[in-house]
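Chapter review: from sequence to fold.
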Amino acid sequence: MPVQLLPASAAAFAPRASSVNVVLGSKVEPWLTKTLKRINKVKRPLNSVPQHTKCLTETLSSPNAIWILASLMLPKAPEDKLKNDSNPLVEAISNYQLIHLEAYIVHVDMVLRNEVAFKLTPDTIESLIEYHKDVHCPNTKASTYDWSEKDQQCKKLHEDFVQAINKFVFTTHVTALEGLEEEGAGELLDGRSEDVKSAVMNLYKPLLPPPPRIVDVVRQPPLLPSSPANVSRWSQPTTPSSLPAPVESWRVLPSSPSVASSGSASPPMWASMGVSEVQMPSPTPAYSTPSYSTPFSSAGYYYGSTLVSAPLPLPSMLAPHCGVSMGFNNFGWDRYQEYTTTM
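The token string follows.
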């Protein structure tokens, strides 16, 4: 895209130049010739490019060459001071004002960008600044919460608007010159006024309060429910201390009658249980006649000089007669005399 070139008169706070900068191409468009003939009361020769340039420059440089770009309906006072009336027409007249956006042409380029540039008049700029100070700033100030630097921010907001509205230049296609009238005045056609309204109203910025302060909270990573606080999550689990200690195989009864000895490859079902963990009834006195109503008598399983005078049988000798139940109901009372002959 070609670089936009504007004269010094288009700068902020620059006064209006006595002559408009007009640049035409090597060939004049027919619509421009027709427009210039329509607005001139005195017939002027328009047979060449220099003649068109001179006629257009003199017409746009006239003090009366003021264009109305758009019209804005704006409130006269802040929202809390607007008047209420039963008649909507009276309420609108009392509370609203019509501001015409008047401008003059500072640049016409029909070679590089084919555009025409407008700059707002000092009276229009003053009206927009007054509205921003008396209406817009109080409204946006009332719509935000209070903080320590609110007044300073509102003042800076107004200063920024003053700079922006003085720098404002509206550019559009050169065909906008078709709305040219006598003495250089004119009006934008083809809906270009809506573009001007949007561009001007976008300069009214809201008052943005500072964002809330974010307090950094350092949180520890959550631990797994089964992991203690001082153990890494990748550490190997330790053996619980509540598990019973290993017991020698000769102290454990075989798990089933089919097992011949305690040295088999697979340990019995209750190999991990010690004899001390099995709740056994107290032994019956020596030389007493066993009662078949008693579920179990463990007289031959206790070491003592007064009770046992012969070596005890090995668990492998008792395996075919022992069941897998914990009650020892099938201990083999039919051979009881063999075990107690020497007692």
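Two observations follow directly from the output. The chain has two domains: 8-201, 296-343. Residues 296-343 form one domain.
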